[in-house]
Amino acid sequence: MSSQPGFIYLTWGQDPATSLIILWQTKSADNPKKVDYRPAGTDTWQHATGSSTDSPGAGVIHQVYLKGLLPGTVYEYRVSWDDGSMSEAHNTRTAQSGAFDYRFIYFTDTGLIGRPDGFTNGTEQVRGEILHDNPLFLLGGGDYAYGNKDGRFEVMAEAGDEWFRQWQPVLTRFPFYPQYGNHEIFLKETFEDWGPRFAYPKDHENGRYYSFDVGDVHYTAIFAPESKTMPTPEQLAWLDADLAAARAHGTRWLITFQHAPIYGCGISHAATPEMRALFVPVYEKHAVDLVITGHDQSYERTFPLHHDGETPNIMSSSMDTYRQGEGVIYTKVSPSGKRSEISRDFSKFTIDQQPFMAVRDDTAHHYAYVDVDASGKLEYVAFSLSGDGSPKTVLDHFTITAKDG
Asked: Pick the residue with more confidence: 388 or 102?
């Protein structure tokens, strides 16, 4: 790889309004490990240095933790090359303090652009749509590179490196919070190929579980790489305590994200009752507002649900307008570029649409954004796109109004 820091990526620190963690990879540990940064439109660069660690891929990962930043501010930053010169400048934003309006995007199951078998026909368009929609930050649902299926990589970590290179237009601009799928854990790629690349806020088990707050929303990243991998009692206890603490703090909204679906009936990776039996009681105990998943390469979204054992009860039959507390809404937003090898297509549904399923689609690629309104509203929009360059279309759209909204 080049000595130029070819793949930079960002996340926020403990306070998204005043901190930023910048990570980048180069060949050498002798890199100055330096970041220049300044509010956009100002003249004077500030400087910070950090640390380095071996990358799971080719080279070394450098990390600089910036603190004391201005809330709600666009920052320019640049990072050091191995020869001591600096990269081109990139822009990113800090969150605002307190409740404020913003957008985040969830995407998953991407694969690598240019894959020889053509299965990743939607990835480049999804990447472009994310840039166009201009979120504040990103949630990643896992299954990023699919190195074991791509055919171009003998070393799986090299497929990870290529994923970071391809997603530079996005990752240099928007803080990214990852979760992991079966392709990062079991299928020749391992957690050790991916987990050490990132910095995690409030993490548990080295980033397998973690949480963070942006405005009046608490986000919890849940390690569920496949529907057959059940959480341990310790993991469920951590999740229960994390959500309880957020509610006790008075946080308005709770959103969780993970790879394996809670509800999904596609042929490739259907959801399992065993996983529902473990997670759903915790979600309902704390009145989680939205659960976002992926893995099974098609789209499904439930009405607000409350469970009586395994039976899901529909708490509102509206297609698009809900009140907070009516029930938990479960979404499966997949794929964001790569069709399934199992079916050699999107994950086609194996049963008729269940009464509790509001919207579903097994004919296109998908991603979703949520607009958080500080006045007390979540507006969710999911898109479908064919991957042939034709315009995306709105597949699903609903709002949840807060109890105090």
From this structure: 102
End-to-end CA distance of the chain: 51
Q: How far apart are CA 35 and CA 86, in angstroms?
A: 8
Which amino acid appears at position 331 of this protein? T
Superfamily of 7-93 according to CATH:
Purple acid phosphatase-like, N-terminal (2.60.40.380)
| Three-class SS state of 301 | strand
> Cβ(166)–Cβ(144) under 8 Å?
no
CA 163/CA 7 separation, integer angstroms:
9
Residue 268's Cβ-side half-sphere holds a number of Cα atoms within 13 Å equal to 25
Tell the residue number behind the tokens 């496949």, with chain if given: 226
Sole residue written with tokens 């899901």:
312
CATH topology of domain 102-401: Purple Acid Phosphatase; chain A, domain 2 (3.60.21)
Question: 105-145: per-residue pLDDT in tens?
Answer: 999 999 999 999 988 999 999 999 999 999 999 999 988 98
- Threshold 0.90, pTM exceeds: yes
